[in-house]
Design a protein that fits this description.
Shape: globular
Strand content: 15-25%
CATH superfamily: Phosphoglycerate mutase-like
GO molecular function: phosphatase activity
Organism: Sporolactobacillus inulinus CASD
CATH architecture: 3-Layer(aba) Sandwich
Protein name: Phosphatase
Length: 198
């Protein structure tokens, strides 16, 4: 059985302002770096074989910080786990997006079917590259929500679940199917005060 520990990246200034980031390459802020250290400390008791990350800076920085706690493992960048593109909504808050695009037709928005295709390809790549191993995958709220939606047949995930910065979710593969073990866990942030979910 291959298991994946999904971790959303730490906070950025755009998260704190409530802005949709999409493919914008925004770095972690100080709070985000602290969150990454806290999730690293929390996960150091888990045994991982490798770390996979989105190519975007906020995810890579989170992965690098966490990796110092879990053993400086091989770290691979996989574009299949990049955040979805919000098109012309990038940089807007949700109220601004809804006001500017009241019908929801956002130019440049990545179609769900395209995200689904690359997510499935990425998960297959992890499964074949790390059979019967535990892999840490650092990605993004929108992307992780797509994974959760696909594996739960839409019961959770996209449009239903607000994922917090550095939240932890676990999924496991047996045969041809993936199962959700847990999701959006933030026990490691319990002493941190307010956490953000955009």
């Amino acid at each position: 059985m291959t298991t994946i520990c999904l971790v959303r990246h730490g906070e950025t200034d755009w998260n704190a302002m409530g802005k949709l980031q999409g493919r914008e390459d925004i770095p972690l802020n100080e709070r985000g770096r602290k969150q990454a250290a806290m999730v690293g400390e929390y996960l150091k008791s888990e045994q991982f074989s490798a770390v996979v990350t989105s190519p975007l800076l906020r995810a890579k920085q989170t992965a690098e910080i966490v990796n110092t706690y879990i053993g400086d493992l091989p770290l691979a960048v996989d574009r299949d786990f990049i955040e979805k593109s919000y098109g012309e909504a990038s940089g807007l808050t949700i109220p601004e997006r809804d006001q500017k695009f009241p019908e929801g037709n956002i130019p440049g928005l990545e179609p769900f079917d395209h995200i689904k295709e690359r997510v499935i390809r990425g998960l297959d790549h992890v499964k074949t590259g790390h059979p019967n191993q535990n892999v840490l995958l650092v990605a993004h709220g929108g992307l992780i929500n797509v994974i959760l939606a696909l594996l739960s047949n839409g019961k959770i995930g996209t449009g239903k679940t607000k994922l917090f910065n550095t939240c932890i979710s676990h999924i496991a593969n047996e045969g041809d199917s993936w199962q959700i073990i847990d999701y959006n866990c933030i026990d490691h942030l319990s002493r941190f005060g307010k956490v953000t979910s955009i």
